[in-house]
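Support case: NAP complex. Customer-provided input:
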Amino acid sequence: MLNEMDEGAVSPRLAFYGLGNYGLEAVRIAHAAGVPIAAAYNRAGPKVGQDLGRLAGLGTDIGVIVQDCDTADYATSGVNVAIVAVTDRLSKNMPVYEQLLGAGINIICHGAEAYFPYGADPELAARIDALARANGVSFTGTGIWDFSRIWAGILAVGPSTQLRALKHYSVTNAQSATLDLAKVCGVTLTQQEFAEQNYDRIGDLYKLIPHHVLHALGYTVTKVTEHREPVLSEQPVYSHLAGRDLEPGIALGIRIVAEVETAEGVTATSHMELRILNEGESEHMLWELDGKPATKVRVDRTDSVHTSAACLVHRVPDVLAAAPGIRLVSQLGVLRPTKLAL
Ligand SMILES: NC(=O)c1ccc[n+]([C@@H]2O[C@H](COP(=O)([O-])OP(=O)(O)OC[C@H]3O[C@@H](n4cnc5c(N)ncnc54)[C@H](OP(=O)(O)O)[C@@H]3O)[C@@H](O)[C@H]2O)c1
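Agent response - structure generated as follows:
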């Protein structure tokens, strides 16, 4: 069944805040589906003043002019829900949240920490939750992990009658964008460079996945750790971004290992690799149960940018219907395609 807007549900008047790779893909999805787009915001620069339709490559004006996010008047915008796609960190995004929540606008955030604010930064989470409640609106983090990692993990546990441990393995293509971004995942680095690299772009984000899943299942999480190691090969491997073979000893990417313990004794271990894919390999995620029945749930995914942007748009009806405060995707129900986005 499609996730239709209920009778009497609030109609979306959607805004986009952050008009990069993912924000503009979400604009194209929402526009194609006829979702009313009321406003668009970006920081100062060449995007401000352009028509959103042109900027998104629709080849036509849609009558929404991109506004400077620092000077826009949110209170009179008529917007009731905004898709925020700027940075991954709650601390960096906080001024954006204050602008939008303060103006009574619900937030759907693409930042990775927003999936599970309580795990990322409990103090900021409390502030976001209080601000949202005070303004009668909700805050939800979503994107591709909504279905491929968080709900996939929850679904794997559904039929279990005994659960000792959860294991999560994943492979993500580290070469889907630029060489600079691939290097953030360690691609082309020597082991010494890997050890010395600053992981402020991706560090401590992936551990939120098993933490969120065990929290959503009702466990009391007592300890969460993450460490990072280079993914190596004994054979030379060609990197199309670097335009050369990477010799053995040079990192093909990163393996992020996260471990979660609970008061109940159930644990979760995640091995998440962001690396050069092997020939014929595609991005995939696997959840495996140590328990009864020994279930596995595997997700093979394609077209990450479109998928993640679609998750943002598909959550619009859920977020408009949500009670005020932080609402995790694990609380909103499994992701369904909304009629709005088809
Ligand atoms: N949730 C998920 O599963 C998931 C998956 C993939 C990516 N992400 C995250 O999604 C975010 C967006 O990614 P992207 O590839 O679209 O990035 P991007 O192409 O760099 O776009 C970011 C956009 O936000 C604007 N911006 C950046 N900082 C801003 C600020 N402080 N205030 C106002 N506008 C700001 C940028 O403006 P300029 O044009 O002036 O630079 C740009 O338009 C990133 O944090 C990324 O890591 C999340």
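Residues 18-23, 42-43, 45, 47, 69, 85-88, 110-112, 143-145, 308 surround NAP (CB under 6 Å).

Case will auto-close in a few days if no follow-up is received.
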